[in-house]
Amino acid sequence: MAEVEETLKRIQGQKGVQGIIIVNAEGIPIKTTLDNSSTVQYAGLIHQLVMKARTTVRDIDPQNDLTFLRVRSKKNEIMIAPDKDYFLIVIQNPSD
Amino acid sequence: MGAGGLNTKGRHTQLGSGYLSCTSAFSGSPQPQPCHPNDILPLTLTSATQELFGCRCDEDVTGDNPYKILRKEDIVQDMRMRAAVSDFSPMKQLVLDYPEDELLLVYDRDFIYGSSFYLVLTADAKERHLKPVVALGVEVALEREPSEVFAAQKTSEPQPWISLGSEQEIEEESVTDSRPRLKYRISRVRREFGAPIFFSDRNAMETKDGFIECTPYQDKNFSLKQMERHTGVQTIPNLKSSSTQTQWTYPRSMCTQYEPREFSEEKKENCLQSEKLKNFVNSVASRFEIAIQQNEIMDVFFDDWKALSEEDSGYGRKADPHLKEYQSFTDLHFSKEKTISNINWHPTINGVIAVAVTERLSFEDRINGSTKLLLNPSLILFWSFSDPINPQLLLECPDDVFSFEFCPSDPNIIVGGCMNGQVVLWDISTHVEQLQGTRTSGGKNIAANTNALNETPVVRYCAVSGIENGHKAPITDIQWLPGTFEVSRMGVPMENKNGICVQIVTCAPDCCVMFWDIRAPRVLQTMADQRKQKVEEKPLENPHGVPNTFKHLDLTWKPLIRVSLPKIDTSGEYSPLKISLRDNTCDNHTGSNAGEYLPSLFLRKTRLQLVLSTTFCPQDGELVYTDWKLEKDNDSGRLFSAKPSHRFIIHDGQVNTVRRSPFFKDIILTVGGWTFAIWKEGVTNGPIIQSSCSQKKCTVGYWSQSRPAVLFIGKEDGNIDVWDLLEKTHEPSQTQNITATQITCIKPWIVSSKQHLLAVSDHLGTLHILEIPWTLRSPSSNEKLSMSKYFEKEVDRLVYFEKRREMRAKEKKDYEAEELRKKTPPVVQVLPLKKMREACNFHHRYT
């Protein structure tokens, strides 16, 4: 538990990071540093996106799998690392 | 007995109606047909007969002359003599029947009728033969066969009618008497004529045959069964009509409500504790760190090329960094001997600017010349770019106005603060079209304007506060509270849901800050007042042509709240000269954030006598910062303001400008004395930037509207200093002289992206409009970012210096304590030496 906290703090402490969310495989947020409404919104939307991206990669090559997804927008960048049971979402503002 | 023949060549005639078809071709070929008309008789004459009668063939009668007249008597005699041998014997009877004496014998040369001669039997035919031949001879020579046929038909003669049985029908149809008509004669006894008549009834049934009955019977005609019928039949496609019943669904409003699935706290804890999560996070963290650091190192999507081009374009246009004079306005009539105290651009109408004109007199002069002042009314002039000579509108004020403002939500309402402490409201909605019109028409209306020289419209104020209710000193600053919040009677800021500005804050050196509300006071009105007011309202008209907008306030206007700020250290109160409010309201109108609003009034004051209302002698300028709210005094139950939190004395003279930056809400510029300073809210150590003392006094300052790093400072010698804080901070980046006297007010304005104007007024009453060049109006790339970084740096510097100061103070104390201890006789010799050395080191290190 402490290890997890420490790692998350380290990521959070990087420059420009606005928030971190840990979401389980069904899209239910487990841990977050943002407020509740944003968390729920991010979790729901990104979960769908990750599922879509993953099926895309696997359809092209069944041996392949999605490791990292970065969505760059005008205002910030959303980074998602999926796993079997969970995925971690980090929102960063790179120009800050 | 010879037979007569007929020479038909060229002479063919049709004879009679009973003619059998015997037309022969005109070519003259002989017809072998034995048919002949009834009235001629072909016969053959022997040569003896021919000699006897003188009609020998080809001697007496020839083709040209085939006709021979024979005497009947001769023929009869011949027949008697030769009886059966005579050629004429077969026609004996016909000859005897012949009516005339002479018969015609025609030589039939071509054997048309089968014999060489023929005898004409009737007198008519004879005539026809002899005579028509002559007539026809001419015609036939001209015409051909068909016309001869028609000509022949016309001349046909009527024949006796031959009955074909039609008279029987006519006889049947005609009505004739079949029997002779019956005649009846009826007589009566004379005496019975005219006698009264007696009628009696008689039953018809009694006597036999009393009536004749026509009994009905079934007519067999109508019970006939029609065995055959004549109808038409047509085939059509097979049609089938059927119907079904559908279930009609009608729309119904429904709603669903959903909420996202969430874990409960324990579940979350469980998950967090699980081993899986730990492994996951460990494996994933490295990827993230790489990605995040990548972003930090370099922004991959940053377009360097575009960024480069911005600076390049700056070079080309660096030609003229000076402020160019665009226009200047002086009115000889109204602003003679006067100075301009305040300028305001009209928020919506382009090219219209308003200036407040005040007398250029000191206090004693005012008192001495007060009677003259009464004759000269104080005015606010409206200038328009289209007409530099005549002002467009004049607003009449009860006294000199030192500050006035357009209402941000309704530019037709103007509020001004007068020298006598009154707050004045104007409503110029009736003259707005004129103001707008002058802008657009421009040159066309010059003629009209010269006529209207005497008629520059004057607008009287439509509401003024009561003299006893207002300030006791000239109102030096007046501002509209932003339209999103308002202050209640208790001094609690609330959200103003209308979005219209309704409240004004004024301050004057009479130690008062007042909040005014331009709405009709509802709470105070009792029923009697309301009725009275209603009665009064009806006959109210516009006495001076003033709209009734604020009639409810006129002469009875009271401030909503009267605030006096007590001094921090000493007793007494501050006399504010300028106010700056922070607009902390949130943009979203959820309304829930109103509670966390804190108005912070940044006041500055002059530290002078408290009874200051009349003089303006400049001494020190003090800045007072407070998070203001009204508190209730527990003892007396009155409301009073809490003491302000901070005060600063920085400037050497009166602080005449307190302005917030349009780009940073917590950066404030203050100008006073010979310096200006920039403050940041929350940093209470002092100004983050303070300029060096300039040669001349700074009279007014303003931020640039488009560049975060630029500010304009007006001086008392008529110069304008343009400071670019990113370029250099020890001196202004450029200085420009505008006029010869002191500058009283500066206001920039953005007309369009290509034109930025700066309105500068001076002490002589002239308004100069300057155009800001491109270098001063277009921000460099990331200017705001650079400025904010610069401010942060300055804040850090201040904080550092503060820390250093504290530390040095502490050090100094320690050192002094040390020195003191040194003076007392030492217990151990070694120690003081050491300590002294330490003290020396200390001293060296920290000086």
TrEMBL record, chain A:
<keyword id="KW-0243">Dynein</keyword>
<dbReference type="GO" id="GO:0005868">
    <property type="term" value="C:cytoplasmic dynein complex"/>
</dbReference>
<protein>
    <recommendedName>
        <fullName>Dynein light chain roadblock</fullName>
    </recommendedName>
</protein>
<keyword id="KW-0963">Cytoplasm</keyword>
<dbReference type="Pfam" id="PF03259">
    <property type="entry name" value="Robl_LC7"/>
</dbReference>
<comment type="similarity">
    <text>Belongs to the GAMAD family.</text>
</comment>
<keyword id="KW-0493">Microtubule</keyword>
<keyword id="KW-0813">Transport</keyword>
<dbReference type="GO" id="GO:0005737">
    <property type="term" value="C:cytoplasm"/>
</dbReference>
<dbReference type="GO" id="GO:0007018">
    <property type="term" value="P:microtubule-based movement"/>
</dbReference>
<dbReference type="InterPro" id="IPR016561">
    <property type="entry name" value="DYNLRB1/2"/>
</dbReference>
<keyword id="KW-0505">Motor protein</keyword>
<dbReference type="GO" id="GO:0005874">
    <property type="term" value="C:microtubule"/>
</dbReference>
<comment type="function">
    <text>Acts as one of several non-catalytic accessory components of the cytoplasmic dynein 1 complex that are thought to be involved in linking dynein to cargos and to adapter proteins that regulate dynein function. Cytoplasmic dynein 1 acts as a motor for the intracellular retrograde motility of vesicles and organelles along microtubules.</text>
</comment>
<keyword id="KW-0206">Cytoskeleton</keyword>
<dbReference type="InterPro" id="IPR004942">
    <property type="entry name" value="Roadblock/LAMTOR2_dom"/>
</dbReference>
<dbReference type="GO" id="GO:0045505">
    <property type="term" value="F:dynein intermediate chain binding"/>
</dbReference>
<feature type="domain" description="Roadblock/LAMTOR2">
    <location>
        <begin position="4"/>
        <end position="92"/>
    </location>
</feature>
TrEMBL record, chain B:
<dbReference type="InterPro" id="IPR001680">
    <property type="entry name" value="WD40_rpt"/>
</dbReference>
<dbReference type="InterPro" id="IPR015943">
    <property type="entry name" value="WD40/YVTN_repeat-like_dom_sf"/>
</dbReference>
<keyword id="KW-0963">Cytoplasm</keyword>
<keyword id="KW-0853">WD repeat</keyword>
<dbReference type="GO" id="GO:0036159">
    <property type="term" value="P:inner dynein arm assembly"/>
</dbReference>
<dbReference type="GO" id="GO:0045504">
    <property type="term" value="F:dynein heavy chain binding"/>
</dbReference>
<dbReference type="GO" id="GO:0036156">
    <property type="term" value="C:inner dynein arm"/>
</dbReference>
<dbReference type="InterPro" id="IPR036322">
    <property type="entry name" value="WD40_repeat_dom_sf"/>
</dbReference>
<keyword id="KW-0677">Repeat</keyword>
<dbReference type="InterPro" id="IPR050687">
    <property type="entry name" value="Dynein_IC"/>
</dbReference>
<protein>
    <submittedName>
        <fullName>Dynein axonemal intermediate chain 3</fullName>
    </submittedName>
</protein>
<dbReference type="GO" id="GO:0060294">
    <property type="term" value="P:cilium movement involved in cell motility"/>
</dbReference>
<dbReference type="GO" id="GO:0045503">
    <property type="term" value="F:dynein light chain binding"/>
</dbReference>
